[in-house]
Amino acid sequence: MIRISSQQIFSGGINRLQELNTSLNNTQQQISTGQRVNKPSDDPVAAARILKLDQELSRVETYQRNVDLADNRLKQEESALESSTDVIQRIRELTVQAGNGSLSANDRRSISSELEERLGQLANIANTRDASGEYIFSGFQGSVKAFEKDPSGSWVYQGDEGQRVLEIDDGVTVPISDNGKDIFVRVPAAITGENTSVTSGSSISGVSLVNEADLKAAFPETFPDDITIQVDDSGAITASSSSNPSLDVTPDTYVSGEPFEVAGVEATITGPLPTPPDVDSYTLKINEKQSVFGTIENLIAGLNNIDKSSPGGQTEYDDLIANSLINLDNAQESIILKQTELGGRMNAVESTKTFLEDSSVYTNEIRSQLQDVDYAEAISNLSFQSFVLQAAQQSFAQVSQLSLFDRL
């Protein structure tokens, strides 16, 4: 016979009631929070997996914020570049209008006035700021205004050549900015000619690229160099460059006012031949860069200052219009190429955004399966646990009143 003391009865009963009460409280907490696992002891394995899933969700949320930032920055840049192409297109229309030979000096000044307004508009676009107040075309120096006027009144780039990059997923980065120097300053310029050493009073004009294939053929393994043209007292025309000492000239005999071609570039020299033993020299500038602001500023200056009635004035004016149109076309092409590049970046950002959204949904589904409570099951358990606790309390109350004196 096993003897059970009253203390053991009381201790066992109280422990059982505490266990039942704890289970009931846990179930009530699950129902109130909607979570099956409120502390690691509820389900250690599930708690560990939930912790890892929370870390994954935190990582995804961080990258989603980066994706939104990248998307906003790229869309803002795209909008600014689109506005700049519209302004340059209007400037080009004005340049074509300025080439009309019937325009008076007042007409040209009127066009010049609108060009000045458009120049300021283009500068404002190039100085676009983002939501945080930083200049988007200043490279790394976001607090520095991208373009400012120098003492001579010309618009000059003030930023650096940096490009900001943002990580939008593990190992996936995307550039979110472009410096204004690459977009607005380093624009291929029209091929031009200048007098290098001329004693006869002749001048070179009408310089243009007429056959790009011939230019590439003349410099098959090198970047095209500036070309030196020489005319001697007999009228023989020769051409050379630093990488090619002898270039073909067609025709190679000088005739004042008649065009000739060298390496796909056409030019015209007008004026007398040099006197012996002098040799006139000219330079064809092949690979110059021209800021779009500089192109517009030169155009404005030419409209205001070139006297078409002076000797050589009409030729100078015609060259100004022709070269300005080429430079403006090159500026538009430069911006369009950048827009194409932006489109590729925006596609990458969009695809990454979709991937992160899918990853977030999938992770949340798994987390929900581990964490969320089944209300029907929990409420059923709560009812059952309440019943068991109530029965245990009643049983304990009766047992605790038993005594040997009741049997005497």
Automatic annotation (TrEMBL):
Residues 53-80 form a coiled coil. The gene is flgL. This is Flagellar hook-associated protein FlgL. Transmembrane segments: none annotated. Residues 15-140 form the Flagellin N-terminal domain. Keywords: Bacterial flagellum, Cell projection, Cilium, Coiled coil, Flagellum, Secreted. One of its GO terms (molecular function) is structural molecule activity. One of its GO terms (biological process) is bacterial-type flagellum-dependent cell motility. It comes from Marinobacter manganoxydans MnI7-9. InterPro entries: Flagell_FlgL, Flagellin, Flagellin_C, Flagellin_N. Belongs to the bacterial flagellin family. Its main location: other. It is found in: Bacterial flagellum; Secreted. It holds the Pfam family Flagellin_N. Residues 328-403 form the Flagellin C-terminal domain. One of its GO terms (cellular component) is bacterial-type flagellum hook.
